[in-house]
Design brief:
Blueprint (H helix, E strand, L loop, with lengths): L2 E3 L2 H13 L4 E6 L5 H12 L4 E6 L19 H10 L4 E3 L3 H4 L18 H4 L3 H16 L3 E5 L3 H13 L5 E5 L19 H22 L5 H15 L2 E9 L15 E9 L2 E8 L1
The structure holds adenosine monophosphate (AMP).
Length: 282
């Protein structure tokens, strides 16, 4: 049975009760508008030994910038619950914004270096909102394991950093990106795309794959790898925020020249009003 709660203390009690029954709590935080990518995370939690699976659905206002899509972000709670019920997720927490950020709220969690480039550079305040809400969800849930998607690659690495630095007793898992058969990474934001934009959106994953092919054939020069992907993305997208190679764990910028062998290529670009991200580890 899947239980839906909106209330913070009811949620905390249900998680406490599960732990008292000796269950291993697994957490999957989401913003809803659920698709196969999210559902794969709930299955991963089970594969990691979670015997009580919790999903949270919260469109977190503090991680959206003033010009971003907070108000139009898709909210499909009923359909989301039905999908989680089909996956036999045990508990769903869907709090109201005031419950998470009551009057007088003034404490934040900030990860430093890992949040500076890429998403952090293009979305000021974004990661501060993410780490703060994830820390709150961790405290409310008390999970043994928490599953995130590598679709938000930098977010996954930032949360790993937070958990290590703050000694949170939680295993953080990064699940591989779930894609459409043509390669487009699943995203709640894909539903914003017109038919024409949906066709053009494919250039993001195609560009990354072209760079990986070059890498696999021996290309190690950073500027060449980035140019290979960028050229393909630029043909289809309106604005590119970044198409960059970084160290796969620290996300530290790479020195000029060769990229080495533990790298990821990250990309973010706009199609009309929609901003898409994707990445590929080499
Ligand atoms: P969101 O609801 O977009 O905040 O995403 C919630 C979680 O689902 C995050 O950890 C995302 O990285 C993950 N996620 C979203 N899309 C995908 C995907 N296509 N494949 C794997 N994980 C995903």
């Amino acid at each position: 049975m899947t239980l839906l709660v909106h209330d913070k203390s009811a949620f905390r009690n249900a998680c406490e009760d599960a732990r008292a029954r000796g269950l291993r709590v697994g957490l999957v935080p989401t913003m809803g508008a659920l698709h196969e990518g999210h559902l794969a995370l709930t299955r991963e939690a089970k594969a990691r030994g979670a015997t009580f699976r919790v999903a949270t659905i919260f469109v977190n206002p503090s991680q959206f910038g003033p010009d971003e899509d907070f108000s139009r972000y898709p909210r499909t709670l009923e359909a989301d619950i039905a999908k989680l019920r089909d996956e036999a997720v045990d508990l769903v927490f869907a709090p109201a914004p005031d419950a998470m950020y009551p009057e007088g709220f003034e404490t934040h969690v900030e990860v430093e270096k890992a949040t500076l480039p890429f998403e952090g550079a293009h979305r000021p305040g974004h990661f501060r909102g993410v780490t703060t809400v994830v820390a709150k969800l961790f405290n409310l849930t008390g999970p043994c394991v928490a599953v995130f998607g590598r679709k938000d690659y930098q977010q996954w690495r930032v949360i790993e950093r937070m958990v290590r630095d703050l000694d949170m007793p939680i295993e953080v898992v990064g699940h591989p990106i779930v894609r459409e058969t043509d390669g487009l990474a699943l995203s709640s934001r894909n539903r914003y795309l017109s038919d024409d934009e949906r066709t053009r959106a494919l250039a993001l994953s195609t560009g990354l794959r072209a760079a990986k092919t070059a890498y696999d054939m021996g290309e190690r020069r950073r500027d060449h790898l980035e140019a290979t992907a960028r050229e393909i993305v630029a043909q289809a997208f309106d604005v590119i925020d970044y198409v960059s190679v970084a160290h796969a764990e620290s996300l530290a910028p790479l020195a000029e020249g060769d990229v080495g062998d533990n790298v990821v290529m990250l990309a973010a670009a706009h199609l009309g009003k929609t901003r898409l991200i994707d990445n590929l580890a080499f």
